[in-house]
Amino acid sequence: MNGKILIIDDEEKLRNLMARIITLEGFEVLEAMNAKTAWKKLEQHDVDIVVCDVRLPDANGVELCHQIKLKLPLTEIIVLTAYGNIPDGVQAMKNGAFDYITKGDDNDKIIPLLNRAMEKVQLQKRVVQLEKQIGKHYEFENIIGESPLLRDAIELAKKVAPTEATVMLLGETGTGKEVFAQAIHHASKRSANPFLALNCSSFNKELLESELFGHKAGAFTSAVKDKKGLIEEADQGTLFLDEIGEMHIDLQSKLLRVLETNEFIKVGDTKPTRVNVRIITATNRYLHQEIEEGKFREDLFYRLNVFTIQLPPLRERKKDIPLLANYFMKYFAERTNQNVTEMSKEFLEHLQHHEWKGNIRELKNIMERAVILATSPRLSVENLPLELQVINHKAHGTLSAFDLASVEKLHIQRVLNHTRGNKTEAAKLLNIGLTTLYRKIEEYGLG
Predict the structure, then answer these.
(1) In-domain check, residue 220
(2) Which of 266, 293, 307, 410 could form a disulfide with 214 if both were Cys (CB 3.0 to 4.6 A apart)?
(3) Which residues 6+ apart lie within 8 Å of 353 measured at CB?
(4) Residue 371: pLDDT over 80
(5) What would you report as the CA-atom Rg of the chain, rounded to the nearest whole angstrom?
(6) pLDDT above 90 for 391
(7) What is the mean pLDDT of the chain?
(8) pLDDT confidence of residue 226
């Protein structure tokens, strides 16, 4: 297990002996005789573990431990104490030290202790690296699309992200509202704290109240112990409430109290719980109509609607379809271990002519299916669902899968794919004349 160790001790012989022992175990060792030299070493090198004496000429090792942990939280510290001086070691651990050992015992105990400390260092570094990767995944730059409507939405989200304003995301189902909410969170001052999401349409009133606000033991029959709600779990972070229009009006008043006072009362509790949470909501409903019908509180609407961002449906940003399709193709090819690397021109053409009522979510599902069904590196029309395999050029929608012309066109396309475009061979397989085949190709726009 390799790593870089800094030994801080003014006793040269002891320091050199310890350095030789540690070096023989495969560690890279740096030495410092005082705190001043140690700080220079720490600035110049990426030190994993510091082994520090309590008594230094220019510093107290226990206090130095605290200062190092403040500046270098991922660096672990092992403190060397004088024989029998346990209070120094205990205080050092309170200051953030990994452990302490007594001088004289260190030759036997130092290596196992270093190995344990190094395991912790490496684990912490992996966690930090993973957090960075996750954060990068949710950056605005990773939202796929170049259409003006999408870029406008991203610019608005970038402007509101660093603020504490509540945000309402409007758009059809499947347009990527949660992706936007995550990007806003990760570009905010709350990014190091939790991001939690809840779809309000997934629960009835009672379950949603418990999920959001939590409950005390005994609040209802199955409440055998206290439970934190998502609002409390998201404290100091962000809570994303999707389909907010589905929330029962009785619960809307409790959410309004959170926004106005930063307090709420758990189910079965009598004392309020304080939180500091940013709320982002989303809906595909027309809330003004819900307000008129008495289904949504007007005062809550204005508290949530501080900053609104409209997300465009996929049919209004069709130039982004090839970009999204390519991303999903690569993603699912890797996940399913399929050798799929490209899409045919006809495959993309059919995607472009579809109406995408399910938006990006529908495209994602169709691309996953296409990759699974692929028998070659190139996705072709036959990898698409039946309703996407035929294009109606008279009306930019999709022909019925049961329409006779649709079935004929689909069959001819499949045969042409099978013969790799060889029309003579295709005509033979179809048992029609070559002239008839050319006429059908022109009629259906198969090219």
Answers:
(1) yes
(2) 266
(3) 391, 392, 396, 398
(4) yes
(5) 32
(6) no
(7) 87
(8) 81
